[in-house]
Amino acid sequence: MEDERKDKEKHVTNSDYSRTQLKVLIVDDVRVIRMTHKMLLDRVGVKDHVAVENGKEAVELHNNGQSFDLILMDKDMPVMNGIEATRTLRSMGISCKIIGVSSSTCNQLYVQEFVEAGLNGFYTKPLTVKMLGEILEKIKS
Predict the structure, then answer these.
(1) Alpha-carbon distance 6 to 112, whole Å?
(2) For the purposes of burial, counting CB atoms within 10 Å of the CB of 134, is it exposed (0-12), middle (13-18) or buried (19 or more)?
(3) Which of 19, 97, 118, 121 lies in disulfide reach of 90, CB 3.0 to 4.6 Å?
(4) Residue 11 in 3-state DSSP?
(5) How many CA atoms within 13 Å lie on the side-chain side of 130?
(6) How confident is the model at residue 96 (pLDDT cuts 50, 70, 90)?
(7) What pLDDT score was predicted for residue 98?
(8) In the chain, what is the greatest distance between 2 CA atoms, to the nearest angstrom?
(9) pLDDT digits (tens, 9 = 90+) for 120-140
(10) How many other C-beta atoms can be found within 10 angstroms of the C-beta atom of residue 120?
(11) What pTM was estimated for this model as a whole?
């Protein structure tokens, strides 16, 4: 079973999109999650990534002229949560893919509110190489 999982992850790691030049913004208040997402992105060949601790910092990066192909957005953060940040970014005309990544899925209203804010998808933490592969495939299409 473990070997089968590694084979699947290896396949995802070595696929075409692993060499793309995407720029990814990681928005999460938990340092370990930010580091894990960076490690997963590195593993699939996405080397251009920036991480911030809250939605306000994500908005400020865009206000300062930064642009990204993908944003991995947590929902529950201090200062500005993911829902507010997503709404703000969309109102600024930011059209890149924003994927909600949260540990909370028990409340469907919670997920629905996040999606309605302007998400292009929603995944439950922790992200895996396979999940990240699915996200990157969506970016390509």
Answers:
(1) 33
(2) middle
(3) 118
(4) helix
(5) 7
(6) very high
(7) 96
(8) 47
(9) 988 888 899 999 988 888 777
(10) 17
(11) 0.84
- pLDDT-based confidence at residue 94 (cuts at 50, 70, 90): very high
Q: Average pLDDT over the chain, rounded to whole?
A: 84
Quick one: tokens of 7? 């084979």
Contact 58, 71 (CB under 8 A): yes
Query: Omega of the bond prior to 126 within 30 degrees of 0, cis?
Result: yes
Q: Concatenated DSSP letters for 41-99? A: HHHTT--EEEEESSHHHHHHHHHTT---SEEEE-SS-SSS-HHHHHHHHHHTT--SEEE
Question: Which helix (H) or strand (E) segment is 114 a member of?
Answer: helix 108-116
